[in-house]
Automatic annotation (TrEMBL):
Keywords: Cell cycle, Cell division, Septation. SUPFAM superfamilies: Cell-division inhibitor MinC, C-terminal domain (SSF63848). It comes from Muricoccus pecuniae. NCBIfam families: minC (TIGR01222). Transmembrane segments: none annotated. This is Probable septum site-determining protein MinC. Coiled coil: none annotated. Belongs to the MinC family. One of its GO terms (biological process) is cell morphogenesis. Cell division inhibitor that blocks the formation of polar Z ring septums. Rapidly oscillates between the poles of the cell to destabilize FtsZ filaments that have formed before they mature into polar Z rings. Prevents FtsZ polymerization.
Length: 234
């Protein structure tokens, strides 16, 4: 029997866009995020986004990787950025990744790589995923390429994710992430709004940042520009 097989696959990964090259700024900011939203990004594989960094001011990727792993974040590669940034990241063990259906980054010279099949792009929008029970702490449910409907409570420490809209026909006490990376029109609906975190297309708000959101009420969350709006339903 053969000892292994290689095949292409698609995965839902969060991108951590680096806006500042200084490790001593990035990591404390993440630590502050963890204090406000316990469990956010814990043990999550992430991709480092390099597009917003100065091409000649690369972070210390070895130090950044070590410090992220120390707080239970697992960086697995990079996206975007120029050749110099990608080369510096690759030297620290962070290869450039290509989004399914996206552009291939310019190659970085390296010794004879073993060819690996490219991931297949998603086949299109998928039917709505319906979950008929509560989502327990520690569970993560993702509706790839479509909407997600939960007919129960999303408990603290649970995470529900959809590339489209998220509907919670119960109490939302955990984290709800809608819109994937770029669906700015996605929305989050909850019959009882008590979230740890809500996010649409990468824009997010934690419990302490919900402002005048009508907690404990039926709520719709949407994006207006780069700001979240929380509208009471009914």
């Amino acid at each position: 029997m053969e000892p292994f097989r290689l095949r292409g696959a698609n995965f839902n990964l969060l991108v951590l866009r680096l806006l500042d090259p200084r490790v001593e700024v990035i990591v404390p900011a993440l630590a502050d995020q963890f204090r406000r939203a316990p469990g956010f990004l814990r043990n999550a594989p992430i991709v480092l986004g390099l597009d917003d960094l100065d091409p000649v001011a690369a972070p210390d990727f070895n130090d950044l990787t070590a410090q992220l792993r120390a707080v239970q974040i697992a960086p697995i590669g990079t996206t975007g950025g120029g050749p110099e940034l990608r080369a510096a990241a690759q030297a620290a063990g962070l290869p450039p990744l290509r989004a399914a259906g996206g552009e291939t980054p310019q190659p970085i010279a390296q010794p004879a790589p073993v060819p690996i099949p490219e991931p297949l792009p998603p086949s299109g929008w998928q039917p709505t995923l319906v979950v008929d029970q509560a989502v327990r702490a520690g569970q993560r449910i993702w509706a790839q390429g479509g909407d997600l409907v939960v007919r129960g409570t999303v408990n603290p420490g649970a995470e529900v994710i959809a590339d489209g809209n998220v509907h919670v026909y119960g109490t939302l006490r955990g984290r709800a992430i809608a819109g994937g990376a770029d669906n700015l029109n996605a929305r989050i609906f909850a019959l009882n709004f008590e979230p740890e975190l809500v996010s649409i297309a990468g824009y997010y708000a934690v419990r302490d940042g919900l402002g005048d959101a009508p907690l404990g009420r039926p709520v719709q969350v949407c994006l207006i520009g780069e700001s979240m709006r929380f509208d009471r339903l009914g």
